[in-house]
Amino acid sequence: MMKRLVVGLSLLLLVMGAAPVYAATPLETVRTEVNKVLEVLRNKSLKEDAKREKLRVLYAEMFDQEELSKWCLGRNWNKLSEAQRKEFLPLFQQVLEKTYGDRILSYSDEKILFDREVPISKGRVEVQTRVMTTKSKEVPFNYRVFQNKSGTWKVYDVVVENVSLVMNYRSQFNEILAKGTPDELLEILRKKVKGQKA
Hints:
This protein is α+β, with helices and mostly antiparallel strands. The chain is built from 7 helices and 5 strands; from the N terminus they run H-H-H-H-H-E-E-E-E-E-H-H. The chain has a single domain (2-197), classed as Roll (Nuclear Transport Factor 2, Chain: A), CATH 3.10.450.710. A 5-stranded antiparallel β-sheet has the order 1-2-3-4-5.
């Protein structure tokens, strides 16, 4: 139960991202957007489908799907043609939304503490936060954000208890593409999405 809760909370990260709050620091931006997500999750008048839709909108607006995809694919991004990249982006987004959607909805009003910003490199920062579980356990999650050309902070990775979302998927994609082709990877994602809708 605790493990499921931790995983669920970690996925809260995914949909949160960092929204276009101009002139705000990375920490302020993440805090603002986390609170928006929490409002949706705490709204008892919303049915599950309505919550999913609101979270989907937040994800689409706040998360940089292309940047996330590039980081998850790593050097393999260059193996995809332009057409393959265009198909990969929405397929991967749908896989992420479904994978984490159920877990995010398991949120049960834990308290989130916003700690500090740690510079990674120019234009990239790690925002460190903690979740206080109902058993007073602290679960660290760190949002890695970058500043895009318009000056907006966007999340491109989430690290929960030293487990990186990007590195997890990069390992999976590397394994697939070491033996197969980009078309085979896309077919795997198509089947996942089709299975989710079934």
